[in-house]
Amino acid sequence: MATPLSHPQRRPPVLRQAIKIRRRRVRDLQDPLAQTAQELEPPSHHLSPEERALLYEEALYTVLHRLGQPEPSHVREASELLQYLQEAFHMEPEEHQQMLQQVQKLEKPIFCLKATVKQAKGILGKDVSGFSDPYCLLGIEQGVGVQGGSPGSRHRQKAVVRHTIPEEQTHRTQVITQTLNPVWEETFILEFEDISNSSFHLDMWDMDTVESVRQKLGELTDLHGLRRIFKEARKDKGQDDFLGNVVVRLQDLRCREDQWYPLEPCTETYPDRGQCHLQFQLIHKRRAPAASRSQPSYTVHLHLLQQLVSHEVTRHQAGSTSWDGSLSPQAATILFLHATQKDLSDFHQSLAGWLIAASTRAWSSRAAASCTPSPASSTSGSRAGSRENRVLVQMCKMKAFRELCPDSTPLPRLVTETLRTGTVQWFHLKQQHHQPMVPGMLEAGRALLSLVQDIIGDLHQCQHTWNKIFQNTLKIDLFSMAFLELQWLVAKRVQDHTAAVAGSPVSPEMGESLFQLYVSLKQLCQLDPGPTERDGVLALDGFHRWFQPAIPSWLQKTYSVALARVQRAVQMDELVPLSELTKHSTSAVDLSTCFAQISHTARQLDWPDPEEAFMITVKFVEDTCRLALVYCSLIKARARELSAGQKDQGQAANMLCVVVNDMEQLRLVIGKLPTQLAWEALEQRVGAVLEQGQLQNTLHAQLQGALAGLGHEIRTGVRTLAKQLEVGIAKHIQKLMGLKESVLPEDAILPLMKFLEVKLCYLNTNLVQENFSSLLTLLWTYTLTLLREGAASQRSCPLASSRLKTALQNLEICFYAEGCGLPPAALHTNTFQALQRDLELQATSSRELIQKYFCSRIQQQAETASEELGAVTVKASYRASEQKLRVELLSASSLLPLDSNGSSDPFVQLTLEPRHEFPELAPRETQKHKKDLHPLFDETFEFLVPAEPCQKDGACLLLTVLDHDTLGADDLEGEAFLPLRSMPGLTGPEEPGEVPQTRLPLTYPALNGDPILQLLESRKGDREAQAFVRLRRQRAKQASQHAPRPGR
Questions:
Q1: Phi, psi at residue 88, to the nearest 5°?
Q2: What are the tens digits of pLDDT across the range 68-111?
Q3: What's the CATH code of the domain at 822?
Q4: Residue 609 belongs to what domain range?
Q5: Are 560 and 635 in contact (CB under 8 A)?
Q6: Which residues, 6 or more positions from 881, have their beta carbon under 8 angstroms from its beta carbon?
Q7: Which of 509, 525, 770, 861 is the 20 to 30 Å CA partner of 553?
């Protein structure tokens, strides 16, 4: 049967002879050197350097990611193909290596096996009737290669696909009933990663259905069928029968395979199980080169073919030999690999060959036939239309046609005029088809809407199918021509319709029809090919002005529909959470859908005029915020209605939790309005129209007002829930402080912790995280207030304070909840920290408080550098062998003059503190020095004391410098504290050697009162605490009477 590819094959010898004769004549008349240089110049490809670089990257990528065994006539070595590409693209070695390295770094494609199950013949008959109902399971097993070179050498097994390949990677053909020679013609795309350890598996099965014995006996034809009945009786009902399988290693396949494969058995019972006809093709998906990602496969292949043909022509011209039109093995291999990997159809390859043959004189029709296969037969309209266009092009190029029709119009112009006329005629036919049966504006609008939608669908088909055919064969932009013609026709009808509607009030039904028509026109305008493809403006430019009178109707209907839906949703809401994870109710979901529909309507409207678009957006935001507040009122009223007849307070609390969650969900939805309505893009559009800050003051003010109202409603609901728990918390804390002294603190707080565990778990289950966190914050603040009041009332009771301290520690753990509750920043407030410090002190015993007091005085001593009150110099050491503390009091200096004569009579009192650690050691005193502000004592004291109490916190040597008065009490010069823990000889095993001098500035007690002393003073029943406080108060009083003079 003749094909379009077969006709030009008769002319190549004549064409080649004519080319040779012309070359000889020109060579005799021109300079040979100039003629040779001219012949070496490659033909023009109409490709920029950037396009050639992308095409070169595509070719290198094709060679590097080659799949399958080579064809017998193709080149096997990749290095030979890369060398050929470097020559064909005229690449320098450095540039070639650079491009090769770039391509090697690109991401690999997804390797696929395109498998077509054609048919089978001679399969086993498994049914009683002697036939089978065959179907195939197929897939790729990865990671395990087939052992050996032939299928027979592997271990036979049944159901390879079903047992070894995951179900999601298994494909199945249709079931062909009652046949031994089934025909499927089904194609599957199977992905794999490594061709070296991947195998194709196909299992063929006989579909068995459960039948009665009577049915099987009715199908019985011979004794073999009777044997099958007995055999089937021994197997499970509905179990499919194995017919055979095919296993092929992918690395043994060529890029394209088409052959019959024997069906392998699992046993030797039936070795001959028939054959299966399979077609394979190794292809790529998601290729990384820019050309593959940005251009159609056919276009890239056409450019690659053009480049290689140009190189072949140039190479033969350089050798002064005539080219017979046959491509080199390297070029044929590269083109075959590229077409196969990109799954380019035979027809497109043939079309590319003919186009290059038509544009390259030296490449005859023999070249087109040799490098591309003939197009496959197809019944689709697009392929038929393409072949017709190709025939027209070839026919117009024939010499006989030019002789018979010398003055004919050029084919592209003739086809263009025909298409334009046909487009107009098609429009009028469609318009008649959509003519309304009943007259009226509403029916006319609906008919016009249907017409526009049909036009949009036709333009889409033209753009994706027909335009490529006409563009490739005749260089005609069918889509641009059709769009320009149809938009003029549509504009005239729409403008007439909107003008007729504008004269009367717009009903809701008419408004809906106009809105749908407006949206369809926007879709039509989005198909505009652009100013480069047309001259002047479009008839549809500014079409939105025709619909301006309908905008109020659109906005009102949007709000009315949303309001009605919200009211219906709330009325049907039972205030029950949707699930354990979704804690809001059905009305919140419906409300979110309403808001999404409003946002969708706003995006569909997308009014072009900036100022009017701003006012429309303001209206949308205003309606949305109004709906939110209306919903709050409706959902609260619904909660009151449902809880009115409820006697169970727990059920009412559940409803309140759901209401609060619904409001929180609503707040989240409202917060997305700026994104859904594209405020940023609107602000850029209206920047030159509105005053600065007007959008911020209008839209954001509306949104913040709505969010503030929602926040208030949520806080009110959470506060109501919190009050129900605050009563129980206060009752348990009050019981905690009134328990007997015999109850341990850990046992005392147990009822409070159980109460909180039950209530907080319940609320955590019924509240969303945001509301639960707000509730925890309120309860934490209230609990801290109760604990602080309790701590103030139990200030003088260490036991009660210890219970409150334990309660605070456990409550902190409870409210933190291992990171699921309040964060540490919310827990550790100033109130918490102050309460923690107070309870730490209040729960401490009196002796421990005295010890803490001396620790603070030692710290004060270490931080004091000024000798404003004077200083004392001592040498102190500890002799562990004798358990003696040796103190050498050397001197004092710069003492305050406390007597009226301008001097003092100083002496030093030495005391080991705290006294309860050194009860047996009495204070020591130095000699009194008369009228001396810089006394030199030079006295030594020894204290017999074990090392253990000296190493405790707060253990110190208190040096009190006093002014001796004969008639009254001694005056205080100052105090110095020498810590015992750091004393030489106390920690080490060796005896101290030379002891250094220590100079201690004198200090005064705090004049404003120490919190530890205040706490000790509150413990009226503790004699030791009262005695210590009296002594320290006396020292503080003495210090206040002899404050240092300024300037000293």
A1: -65, -30
A2: 899 988 999 999 999 999 999 989 999 999 999 999 999 999 99
A3: 1.20.58.1100
A4: 552-716
A5: no
A6: 991
A7: 525
